[in-house]
Specification:
The protein is of the alpha+beta class. The chain has a domain of 115 residues. The chain contains 7 helices and 6 strands, in the order αβααββααβαββα. It has a 4-stranded antiparallel β-sheet, sandwiched between helices. A two-stranded antiparallel ribbon has the order 5-6. β2 and β3 form a beta hairpin. The N and C termini lie far apart (179 Å).
Amino acid sequence: MLRALLLTLSVVAIAHAELCKPDAQNAFKVRISIKTALGDNAYAWDANEEYLFKAMVAFAMRRYSSKSTTQISNVLLCNVTDRVSFWFVVTDSSKNVTTVPGSEVEAAIRMNRNRINNAFLLSDKTLQFLKITSTLSPPVEPSTPVWLIVFGVVLCLIVAGIVFLVVSGIQKHKKKNKESTERENLEEKVEVTLENGIPCEALDLKPGHINGVFAADDERFTSL
């Protein structure tokens, strides 16, 4: 009985070794840079971290498909290196001798990428699934609603336009008043003409005014 059990376990181990190996069908390579991400706070990659990774992949598979019965034991790791890189596959829970299609594993990882990154305090750049494209971070929601920002910008433009119109109107009014005052002052000035190069006042030709020069001549030649 014991011999049969050992034989079964060895067969399963050999089968798993065939399923999980570099470039195997439906296998994915992972590269982790803990030191780069955390610096002096970096933790050691050990069996506990491997268990957590298997648990997160199983979680992603179960969350991707509500009918999935994936267990931690269905996630196989192989070729683990000291620089923290390895390959993994997910076996079919119903047969345990075949792997889940890579497209399903990729979709599950992409769907839960942020949860996996957070579990290891890493990011897409420091926790790399080499055959799975990085996911974009969820957009950051602004603290102020977008419509309120747009409304504020439009309101500022309207206020600026009103201020510009008021200021330009005041300046035009002042300019007009200044021109009117200058015109009135110009009309009030005494006209000065040049006669034989000597400036003299213009003659006042109002009715009833007698030129003094001609008046003197008239008195001189008046008959007795």
